[in-house]
Design goal:
4 copies of one chain form a homotetramer. Helix content of chain A is 72%, strand content 0%. Chain A is mainly α and 270 residues long. Chain A has 2 domains: 141 residues, Four Helix Bundle (Hemerythrin (Met), subunit A), CATH 1.20.120; 102 residues, Helix Hairpins, CATH 1.10.287. The longest helix of chain A has 41 residues. Chain A is extended. Chains in contact: A-B, A-C, A-D, B-C, B-D, C-D. At the A-B interface, α10, α11 and α12 of A face α2, α9, α11 and α12 of B.
């Protein structure tokens, strides 16, 4: 094993996303996560005004430093991609890695810094992509499997959830047009068109109720009462679906365990 | 098989509501669904003002075209109804189809266009019935069985849900009269009568809370706190009922599967 | 069997609260329920102003008629109480009936009409007790058993629900004092004292959010965010408890059915 | 057994936190709980203004009396700590007790009274710690085991709940920056920076909806609709997780009971 292969293996051990044993790898992870959090804070702080020039310069320096670190990290991940996909050749592994969701997010997160050098364009909006790098928080800890359980339950119940959502959507459109018809004369400035009705329907069915739009006529209030009560179903039905999905999951886990031995007589069962 | 029977069979294959194999049937479905969605958009856009005459003319042309297509579709469904109900004679099958929920919706959706020719009346309000045609979205996809599962759960738990709702309704009426008594002196313009109290009770129990009506006296706030906390039960109880319905469903499906073989000894069970 | 006993049996058959077979008993039930609903509407309508004298006179006549019918019904139930409790003597059965919850409600519902004749006092507030007679709606239909299932689930889970509520209550008191401390300087008129803080805590934890009171300082908003997120738990935990109660119920029903026969071999089990 | 040991045993029997048999211990518990509730009321009432000097003096006297009782109680618990931890020596038991959560709360609750005698400092804020003594309400009743069941369910599902919360948090940060970008031009005073966006995201995702901040542009409303609908998932997913935890708990309890006897053949199983 030559020095090149050794360096690559060491780099891969440092950066791969799993529960680390080495101190160096843990330090590396904590550093990257901290830099991501700091960069997210910078995106948030950039929306504030009134910072003195010195602070803005500090912000800029932190950003330059972060982008350099992220670029090196991206290059290292690309370089060691053949360790991640051992059954692929070097080039194929790199292409596959570059097309993975997290790699695209990583690339989009550093690109807004480099692109202005190539052609003059304001890509500040793309800096928000850095927020997505927060998803890496989920990759490097023991919550991944818990999250994948949650994801599996939602995926398994997707068709029930989607069809319920479709019914809700149809109900919303019908409710919004009806509410507009009922209230447009009493509140022409509030219920300007059916789009206002849709905004009302969403605020009511989700029980957010900002209070910027609500019926004032008796007919509108009666109709709103019906929709608000249906809104309870909007919460209850998906909750019931997801609950049953989690219960099913528990049952499945248990029956996998129980498969091998009869719980009553203790005999082995195939 | 003569040409008439062949044409009828071909038409039926094209329009029947199931998972299609032929390209033509899929194209037909997508066309009809698109026209329905466009017509719903037209009903929504009609509530906006300020469109130039050219756009309004376009809207009118789209509507005429849609109604013609929907009319042909309705006629075709009526014609091929004996294929849908093979055990009925031609006339009986057509009457049965014409009285089905979706057929009535389809008829009501095209009628507002034709009726003004017969006798002069403004049936614009009936155009909203077209929104109900959105329900067809649910018929032509694989979500039908998922939705029927949801529907079955709600149906099986109907008596529990209805009796809980009845208790909530009684609670609401009592709360609204009490709240009116407590607040009518402090806010005579807001709590004008017990109907205002009912509107407050609905906004509070469903946790919508628009903010147009709320107690300002100490007694009213204490009472409101009790009602708001009960409002959590209003969400928790139906959710619990529906959750248990979905869990029961899973158990039922599993026990159907398990019926044929003993899970422990593997022997066949009748 | 003499004529007195026969009349008593006939009266009892007419008024007892179960699923009726005779047409007369059903007519009697529908009449009483209708009168109760009409009286509840009268209590609600009395809070409106501006009715012409003729309508007010009609309201008064309906009330007089209802009270007479309710009085006769109450007397009849008292008279036939020994049929309801066959194991008790006449006087004991009547006392026991008179002390039952529904009998007290019935008496309180007619008393405000008679009392002013005895001594001059305004008992209009007591008329609200008539609203409680709405509970009879639950007695005369097939939803009783469904409701008792819901009641049993809540009763069985009472200690879990109460102890959770206690934690929520403690959290609310602490949150209200803290929020008052944080916001009292910025909004002295809104957060006047810890009671205002409690009102805010209830509106936030139950997610009602009327919008009459909310933090405006950064510290207050951060704290409010924590409380609002905890508010999700306030909904999720009782819902989870009640859900598990309903699931347990289903399991219990099934295991009762299964007790008698082995589900696998079909043999009878004691 | 000398008089000292007897006195200590009697004191321990009086103050230990379990279901009491003796009348004296119950009276002691009720007294302490009442004093705690009265002190919490005092902390709440202190935020009100306008009490006459006489009432304020009464408040002060109640506080002095309570602190003396609480101090004696604290000393007694410290003294009898070796009864609570019989396997430890006297000093070790006392240190262990003094470092327990409830003991620290008890000490912090009495300290703000004594400290000003030692060095002049305003520790009124520390008086709020007395609110935490309300937690003792949970220790001296039969709801403890119910509460520990609830706690165990949440603990067992902690990793799923935390990872879901992390996803929600990431979603919130992204939503807040996006909403700020969309609305900052239309409402520069309302959406001043991304922190305002975060405040909006929390009010929307938790469905509180105070109504102090909401989008007014069409793009903002559409985006808000998406977030509000996701807010339903924010409630549904933890509820589903907690529901399944409670169901799992029931199953575990049942299988513990069932372990000893086969439910079908009735034979004892080890």
């Amino acid at each position: 094993m030559d020095i090149y292969a050794k360096a690559k293996q060491a780099t891969y051990n440092l950066i791969r996303d799993d529960d680390k044993n080495s101190v160096a790898a843990t330090v590396f992870d904590v550093t990257i996560i901290s830099l991501i959090v700091v960069n997210v804070l910078l995106v948030v702080l950039d929306t504030f005004s009134g910072f003195p020039p010195g602070v803005l310069a500090l912000f800029r320096n932190i950003e330059v430093f972060s982008v350099i670190v992220f670029s090196v990290e991206y290059a290292a991940r690309l370089w060691t991609a053949d360790k991640l996909y051992p059954d692929k050749s070097g080039a194929a592994a790199r292409v596959r890695y570059a097309l993975s969701f997290m790699a695209i997010v990583d690339l989009l997160a550093i690109m807004p810094f480099y692109l202005p050098f190539v052609f003059p364009v304001d890509l500040r909006i793309l800096r928000m992509v850095r927020l997505l790098r927060l998803l890496r928080l989920l990759k490097v800890n023991r919550y991944t499997s818990a999250l994948s359980t949650v994801g599996n339950v939602i995926k398994r119940k997707a068709s029930q959830l989607i069809s319920s959502t479709l019914v809700v959507f149809i109900l919303m459109v019908i409710a919004s047009v009806l509410m507009y018809s009922v209230e447009c004369e009493a509140q022409p400035l509030v219920f300007q068109n059916a789009f206002s009705g849709l905004w009302w329907a969403i605020a009511t069915l989700t029980t957010v109720g900002y209070g910027d739009i609500y019926p004032i006529t008796a007919a509108g209030k009666l109709f709103s009462a019906v929709i608000a009560l249906l809104g309870i179903g909007i919460v209850a039905i998906p909750t019931g679906i997801i609950s049953s999905g989690f219960v099913e999951n528990i049952d499945a886990e248990r029956s996998t365990e129980e498969k091998h031995y009869c719980p009553y007589c203790g005999e082995k069962v195939d």
